[in-house]
Amino acid sequence: MNTSKTTTLIEKLVFDNKIHVVLNTGDRLTLPYDYTERIKKADKAQLQNYRLIGGGRGIHFPDIDEDISLNGILRYKTSHDLLAS
Fold first, then answer.
1. Strand 28-31 relative to strand 51-53: parallel, antiparallel, unpaired?
2. I need a surface site. Which of 1, 8, 51, 78 has the fewest CB within 10 A?
3. Residues 54, 85: Cα–Cα separation, whole Å
4. Average pLDDT over residues 11-15
5. How would DSSP label each residue in 4-72?
6. If residue 82 lies in a helix (H) or strand (E), which one and from where to where?
7. CA-CA distances (angstroms) from residue 73 to 2, 35, 45, 80?
8. What residues have CB less than 8 Å from 48, skipping those under 6 apart?
9. pLDDT score at 3
10. What percent of the chain has pLDDT over 70?
């Protein structure tokens, strides 16, 4: 059964002054480059070499041996957006 119509998944990443996590819903979540220590220390080429894992539930950056999940991103966004209010 294909659940991609009802499940929010990551489609791709876009890099500029922040990391934009583009979702299959059309929404974008933005992350700072200091989201994790490994991401903070990585250069742009290392970050652009990523692959989606878990059918879009996570991201693997092989050059820096880092995995991040959509659930973790959502928890981060929720806590940091609440702090900014």
1. unpaired
2. 1
3. 32
4. 98
5. TTTS--EEEEEESSSEEEEETTS-EEEE-TTSSHHHHH--HHHHHS-EEETTTTEEEETTTTEEEEHHH
6. helix 70-84
7. 23, 9, 21, 10
8. 15
9. 47
10. 89
pTM: 0.86
Looking up tokens 């878990």 gives: 54
Which two structure tokens, joined as six digits, stand for 1?
Answer: 């059964």
Q: Which domains does the chain have, with CATH numbers?
A: 10-84 (3.30.2020.40)
Most confident region among 1-10, 22-31, 72-81 by mean pLDDT: 22-31
Q: Among residues 82, 64, 75, 60, which one has the least CA distance to residue 29? A: 75
